[in-house]
Amino acid sequence: MDALPVGYKRIAIVHDYLTQRGGAERVVLSMLKAFPDARLITSIYDPETTYPEFRKYQVETMWLNKVSTFRRDPRRALPMLASAFASTEVKDVDFVLCSSSGWSHGIRTAAPKVVYCHNPARWLYQTDDYTTDQPLPVRAMLEVLRRPLTRWDQQARRTATAYLANSWVVRDRILATYGIEADVLPPPVGIDPHGVQEPIPGLYPGFLLTVSRDRGYKNSLAVAEAVNGMRDERLVMVGGLPDPAPGTHWSSRLLGLTKLSDAQLRWLYANCSGLLAVSHEDFGLTPLEANSFGKPVACLEAGGYLDTLSPGRSGVFVKTTATADIVDAIQRLRSITWSPTAILAHADRFSPATFAGRLHTIADEVRALQPSRVLAPAFEGFPRQTLPAA
Description:
The protein is an alpha/beta fold. The chain folds into two domains: about 10-190 and about 350-380, Rossmann fold (3-Layer(aba) Sandwich); about 210-350, Rossmann fold (3-Layer(aba) Sandwich), CATH 3.40.50.2000. About 35% of the residues lie in helices and about 15% in strands. The chain has 14 helices and 15 strands. The protein has helices spanning about 25-35, 70, 80-85, 120-125, 125-130, 135-155, 170-180, 220-230, 260-270, 285-290, 305-310, 325-335, 340-345, 350-365; strands at about 10-15, 40, 60, 90, 95-100, 115, 160-165, 185, 210, 235-240, 255, 275, 295-300, 315-320, 385. The protein has a seven-stranded parallel beta sheet with strand order 3-2-1-5-6-7-8. Strands 11-10-9-12-13-14 form a six-stranded parallel beta sheet. A two-stranded parallel ribbon has the order 4-15. Helix 8 (about 220-230) crosses helix 12 (about 325-335). The longest helix has 22 residues, at about 135-155.
C-alpha cells in the first residue's frame, strides 16, 4: 500500500451505521485498507450482523448504539439519526472521510471533510424506492419528517470540502439534489477471489446466483418468480427467499441462504453459472464480485450497472424487472460462450489498489484547499457528544 498523504496523520472514517453486510460496508473496509490507522466512527454498530472484519478495529459509536432496537433495525432510528450526527463533533483529526447514504455527511468537524456519497438520502429524494416494502405507519412518519430532514440534509452538504460519487448516475443525482459537481470514484471489488472457499453442503455447481438483501427495491421477488417458472434452472438467493405471492409456492430448485461467511460466498461465486442482479442500485458491487471469479452477470439496464457492465464481454442487460425480460436475459446468458479471461480483465479495472491510490490523491488535493469551518447544524434538545482522539 502507498504511504499516507503528506500532512495527514490523523484520519477519521465515518459511516452511517454498521449493522448489515452490504456494498457500502465493503467500501468502508476498503477505505480502512487505504488508511489503516484511521479512526472508525458510526452511529450504531452490531458486530453480529455486519462483516466480521470490523472486529479488528476500535469502532467509536454514538448514543443511539445503546438502544438494542436500533441495533436490530437502524431504520427505526430514522427520526434521530440526523440529530445523532449533527450533535457529534470529531476533534483532533486532520482529515475526515464520510461514507454516506444520507447521514454521516452531517458529522461536525472543523477538519477538511470529503463525502463519498453512495446516494443522496433515498428516503428524502427517492421515497417511492425506499418505502416500497414499508408499512403505512412508516410511510406516514416519513412524510411528516421529510421537510425538516430535507432542510438539515441541504445544510449538512454545505459543510463538505468535496464530494465523490460512486457512479455516474449518482453523480447526476448529487448535481440535481445538491448542485454539486462530484468526481466519480467507483468502489473496488470487496471480496478477494483468491481466499479460502467453503462448500455449501448438498449444493452442486451450475446454479444461478443472486446476492441481495430482501428489500422492495432489490426486486428479489421478481427474480425468484422468473426462475421458479423455468424448470431447468436452479437459483441460490443469498439474503433469503422473499415470501411468495398468495396462492403460489417456491420450487425446491430455489434455495435461500443467510448469514454466510466470505468463504462460503466465494464458493458460491466460483461454482455458479452466472449472477442475476435486477435491483435498482446506485452502484452495485455484486456483479463485479462475480466477474472477479470469471462469471458472467445479467444486470438490470439501469443505475450503477450502466457503469460496470460491458455487454457481451462481462454479461447481458435485463431490460426491465418484468418476468418475461428476466427469463429472456437468463436465456441469453446461457446461450453465450463466455471468456473468463475477458471477464477477469474487466473486473481488474475496479481493483482495491486503484481505489486506494485515488483516495490518497484526493486527500492530497483537499489538503491544498482552505477547508470550510461551517459545522453541520445541530439539533437542540439531544445529547451532545464529542469524539476526541483516543
